[in-house]
Specification:
- Its EC number is 3.2.2.27.
- The strands form two sheets. The chain has a four-stranded parallel β-sheet. Strands 1-4 form a two-stranded antiparallel sheet.
- The model has no long low-confidence stretch (mean pLDDT 96).
- By secondary structure, it is α/β, with parallel strands linked by helices.
- The chain is 37% helix and 11% strand.
- The longest helix is centred in the N-terminal third of the chain and has 16 residues.
Amino acid sequence: MEVAIHDSWKPYLKEEFKKPYFKELVDFVKQEYSNYRCFPPGQEIFNAFNYCHFNDVKVVIIGQDPYHGPGQANGLCFSVKDGVTHPPSLINIFKEIENDLGVSYPKSGDLSRWAKQGVLLLNATLTVRAHEAGSHQKKGWETFTDAVIKTINAKKNNVVFLLWGGYAKQKVKLIDGAKHDILTSGHPSPLSANRGYWFGNKHFSKTNDLLTSKNLKSIRW
């Protein structure tokens, strides 16, 4: 089965694409997209991999679900297309970058500029039905994205994993902390951020410090 994913990932994930669960997942997603409005658009489902090639992965940010409002999701976690109002979590991410690095708040919420620098913006579930948060969870996506995390863990070194919120923190068990760096904090959503679990984590400067300490190029956040 041919999956519209960048060639750099195929040697590592081709066995995953052959597994029964993945075929069932593809059938489910095709049916959902035929019968309901779903996000992101079909050709953008694997954008996280198409913008960030396997050899370039330096940082992994794990989200849970794509945005489920019209025109928001673009296949990269926390990211929205140009011209789309920034969702609350993204606003808080940009505010933290502003406080941490003194980088002025950007107009565009499109994070493909990060992805092209080696930041894998990976949602655990890659699709969703319009206006129904979590509607495509537990259909096989999590098995696939866990396999992606395990592959990065096994095949690469010195990757910085940013785990924000309880759901992302569960993925710590898939990562070897001796080979990679793991930074955890509360989620950037208002509920968590307003309780003091997000702001001040300095994850963006810390990530760059970790990268430069390994002679890797820092990210222009």
